[in-house]
Amino acid sequence: MKKILIATFSLIAALAQADEPELVFYPAVGQTNQQQDKDRSECDAWSRKESGYEWSQPLVTLPNAPPLRAAPTTALASRAPGPTALPQLPSLPPAPPVPLLTGREQQRVTYERARAACMEGRGYIVR
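Request: output the structure for the sequence above.
Response:
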């Protein structure tokens, strides 16, 4: 399970750091090359407007967030009422850092979703 989570976060980070969207569009209803170019251009413009994302600008990534830690068990034990104080528990190891999506990376995700939806709406298969 831990390996799956690490692989998932690595994949998210890798996708967020790529310079251009990697979507591929296949014409499904016989669109001509001219129509494909027009559809791509119009969907790109609409997606940028909807998301605020400009793919020609490089991504800036934030460092990983500090790991979360469990509350100290001594603080919990000292708050217990009367003689039924909680036993001392070993503290948990720190959680692995989770990559954060910056506002710009989130814009990119929104841009890619909008672009895919636009192209699907115009009769393309998106992969």
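The first strand starts at residue 25 and ends at 27.
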